[in-house]
């Protein structure tokens, strides 16, 4: 992820730091290149525009241009604005609610929802000592509930027993009830996906939300789908309301646009990133680390 952006920005910014004095025109020319590089990395257009405007505003002042190392100051401004665009540090899943805390996972089919449900359950169990119950609400694909059951077995986390012919809302209610009775701290609801957003999916999500009262609604989105992931997040946020995002396949060789635009476009934080297929391949999202990596 980010490799080509890293290369492009690296050479543009090296061009700036390599010289002594800088004129306003030099900075503007470099920022035009930065803008092009971000657009090619599939960052949303509005986000690119406001990013470069902000950098320009800060970078063309006399204070920067007349400083001893103007190029390095411009690079620092780019870095800081990149961090700002990515969101704040230390976003994590919020479990600050009476038990059982309900987490609702939403997203399209194939985005990594079920895998991420398992990864989060494992993390909460191992790192925070939580007693977790997972439940698949996917009644459309018969294999889906079985897939979650197998993951539960693999990571040694309880799953709600499968009862055929229940509706997603029935299963959600049963899961919360079972968690209350079983003394679970957290219930993770793995909802059904579709190949694309449609009205029945949104209605189903709204119904589940109403009956399970989730404390977090986490959208799982495939970072490799770039702008589509951003549009998806916007849609889910408007229709269902999300409290955060998990971007999967950050181990892939995507251009990075989704990760870079998500926060600015949706206003929702990226809380976790998926970095592989294994159950441990889940990491916190650190804006500063990513900005460091992109700028080398
Ligand atoms: P769902 O339909 O949204 O529940 O998607 P699944 O959880 O079944 O995941 C679909 C595929 O994506 C599976 O083969 C997962 O192993 C894979 N996958 C999920 N998250 C990641 C990730 O972060 N990186 C990689 N490389 N693969 C992932």
TrEMBL record:
GO molecular-function terms, A-Z: 7S RNA binding; GTP binding; GTPase activity
Principal EC category: hydrolase
Stretch of the intact protein here: 1 to 296 of 520
Protein name according to UniProt: Signal recognition particle protein
UniProt entry keywords in alphabetical sequence: Cytoplasm, GTP-binding, Hydrolase, Nucleotide-binding, Ribonucleoprotein, RNA-binding, Signal recognition particle
Keyword 4Fe-4S in annotation: no
Gene for this chain: ffh
Reactions that this protein is recorded to catalyse: GTP + H2O = GDP + phosphate + H(+)
Family as reported in the entry's similarity comment: Belongs to the GTP-binding SRP family. SRP54 subfamily.
Organism of derivation: Nitratireductor basaltis
Residues binding GTP: 107-114, 190-194, 248-251
């Amino acid at each position: 992820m980010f490799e080509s952006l890293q290369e492009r920005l690296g050479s543009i910014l090296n061009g700036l730091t390599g010289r002594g004095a800088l004129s306003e025109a030099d900075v503007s020319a470099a920022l035009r290149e930065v803008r092009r590089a971000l657009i090619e990395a599939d960052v949303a257009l509005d986000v690119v525009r406001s990013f470069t405007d902000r950098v320009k505003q800060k970078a063309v002042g006399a204070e920067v241009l007349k400083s001893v190392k103007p190029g390095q100051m411009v690079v620092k401004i780019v870095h800081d604005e990149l961090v700002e665009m990515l969101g704040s540090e230390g976003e994590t899943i919020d479990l600050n609610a009476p038990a059982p805390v309900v987490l609702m996972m939403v997203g399209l089919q194939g985005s990594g929802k079920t895998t991420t449900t398992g990864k989060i359950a494992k993390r909460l169990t191992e790192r925070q000592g939580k007693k977790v119950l997972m439940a698949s609400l996917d009644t459309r694909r018969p294999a889906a509930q079985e897939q979650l059951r197998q993951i539960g077995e693999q990571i040694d986390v309880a799953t709600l027993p499968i009862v055929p012919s229940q509706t997603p809302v029935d299963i959600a209610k049963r899961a919360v009830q079972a968690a209350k009775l079983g003394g679970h701290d957290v219930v993770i609801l793995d909802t059904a996906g579709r190949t694309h957003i449609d009205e029945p999916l949104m209605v189903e999500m709204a119904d589940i939300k109403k009956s399970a009262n989730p404390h977090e609604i986490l959208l799982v989105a495939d970072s490799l789908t770039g702008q589509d992931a951003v549009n998806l997040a916007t849609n889910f946020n408007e229709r269902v309301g999300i409290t955060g995002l998990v971007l999967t396949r950050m181990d892939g060789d995507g251009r990075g646009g989704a990760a870079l635009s998500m926060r600015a476009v949706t206003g929702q934080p990226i809380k976790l990133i998926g970095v592989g297929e294994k159950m441990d391949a889940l990491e916190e999202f650190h804006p500063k680390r990513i900005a460091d990596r992109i700028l080398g």
